[in-house]
Records
---
Amino acid sequence: KVQEKTKYKMNIATSIIASIFLFIFFYLAYQYVLASKEMGDLVKAFEFPMWIVLIILPVRFLLSAVRFAFSALLWLDVLKGKRKESDIVVKQLL
């Protein structure tokens, strides 16, 4: 069995790594949307700008990155003893 502090540190590290990757994906998706807008891509069936449809990608990646960063902060509070693990899990903050 893994010790409590080790488990919290692993949760913090996992959340930080996930957040970093999601920020990278946000940046790449944002660049893709900008390129689509500059090229004037259209949804052929509706003659609708493709970048409006694609904007959900960077928005979703950014929201997920922020969520994982928030998760890392919550686990840091648990590690420092400011919160209890049960408070986070029962209240479904993660």
Note: The longest helix spans residues 4-39.
---
Amino acid sequence: MAETFEELAPRLPEPCTVEIFRRAIPGDVRIWYWVAEGRPTGDVPYPDPVSIISWDQQYFVIVYIQLSDPVRRHLCGKLCVDIDVDTCGPAPDLQFPEHDIDLDPCGYGFYVVVFELPAGTFAPPPDYPARCGRVYRLCVTVGSKDACGNPGLIWGVCEAVDIAVHPPVLNH
């Protein structure tokens, strides 16, 4: 049986709340995100979060966004979702392509964005010192664009997820 979001939520970091620039619009925008070994499917809509990964495997960053009822009914246009990875220690920071998703003021206000992290994403460059592993902080930036493509009313960043990345396990 597929796990519900309510069952998964206690194992996730607290959601961050991003800014809505016109406070006359009541409500809020909440963001949960985590790293998983698989992408969401119909059978497993909320894959288990992982916090220790190997750099030779593929992973996914799952971003779950909830716009509360008053907010979602007043916003149209797009959400722009971006992830960046900052390193703790000697390794390059990483950037990934942004994802735009259409806002639906008549919908439920729930949006899921999945970023694929291909195998080797966190492999250190050859000119970096050998280490037992590294810690990275995943940052999610969310902005909005109005229906004309201009900056919208939502803007914020979340920095709640750290992952430890280790070298591949040999003879596994």
Note: The helical segments are 5-8, 69-72.
